[in-house]
Structure formats: structure tokens, C-alpha cells
Design goal:
Number of helices: 7
Largest sheet: none
Shape: elongated
Number of strands: 0
Oligomer: single chain
Strand content: under 5%
Order of helices and strands: HHHHHHH
Radius of gyration: 18 Å
Helix content: over 70%
Length: 140
């Protein structure tokens, strides 16, 4: 019976760590960003991350971080399983936002703009996701 207590204690500890990680990731999400906005951009985001990861002008640490992000997004194992409505994809959005913020800090906004494959409106959402403010609109 001691092995059962140990097993329950380990399972409880892992559950607690998982909940703590999820809470920290949710707290760091950009203000006003909805899961729906982010999911619409998924194909362009994946292309952006792949293009940034392949850009040899970026620091190696940035590229490694991006390859790890791609592996996480494509992996069936998530913090919250994707079968859980809304929350299943929310953790992907939060992890992506966290990684993009880190990448933009090191690589710069220019790299983000240079590799963006989608529309300008989508880039504005990605810039919010990365913690940047949208550029001022041209006068006129």
C-alpha cells in the first residue's frame, strides 16, 4: 500500500505543477486576444514560425526556440488536450504568444514583418500576440 501512496503523491504533484504552469501561461496572454482570433491565423502562424526557424540570419537560440515551438504545436501531447473545448487550443495560443514575444525581443520586429505570409490584419493580430503595438496607420 505504500507504493499506492507514493503513486498518488506523484500524480497529485504532477497535476499541481500542470495547473500552475497553465495558470502562469494564461496570466501572460496578451490583453484582449481571443482564442478565436488566434485560431483563424493558425496556418499563417505555422508558416511564419517555419520561415523564421529556417532564417539563418537569426541567432541560433531563436531558431531552436522556434523549432521547439513547432514540435509542441504539432505534438499530440499538450498542457491541455486539444479535445477539451476552447481550453484545448487556448494553451497552444498562450505558448505561441510566449514564444513569439521571446523571438521578437531577440530577432526584432523586422524579422516578423519580413516573414509574415498573410494579410496585414493578420499581422496586426500576430504583433499583438507578440506583445507589440500595431504600427501607426499612414496619414490620409
Amino acid at each position: 500500500m505504500d507504493w499506492l501512496r507514493v503513486l498518488l503523491a506523484v500524480a497529485g504533484g504532477l497535476l499541481l505543477l500542470w495547473l500552475l504552469a497553465l495558470a502562469l501561461l494564461w496570466r501572460d496572454r496578451p490583453d484582449g486576444l481571443t482564442v478565436r482570433d488566434s485560431l483563424r491565423l493558425l496556418p499563417d502562424l505555422l508558416r511564419l514560425v517555419r520561415r523564421l526557424a529556417a532564417d539563418r540570419s537569426l541567432p541560433r537560440a531563436v531558431r531552436v526556440r522556434l523549432w521547439l515551438l513547432l514540435a509542441y504545436l504539432l505534438s499530440p501531447v499538450d498542457l491541455v488536450p486539444d479535445v477539451v473545448p476552447v481550453l484545448g487550443y487556448a494553451d497552444d495560443v498562450v505558448v505561441t504568444a510566449w514564444a513569439l514575444r521571446s523571438v521578437v525581443r531577440r530577432a526584432g520586429d523586422d524579422a516578423l514583418v519580413r516573414h509574415w505570409p498573410g494579410e496585414a490584419a493578420g499581422l496586426a493580430v500576430v504583433r499583438r500576440l507578440a506583445g507589440l503595438t500595431p504600427p501607426p496607420s499612414p496619414p490620409g
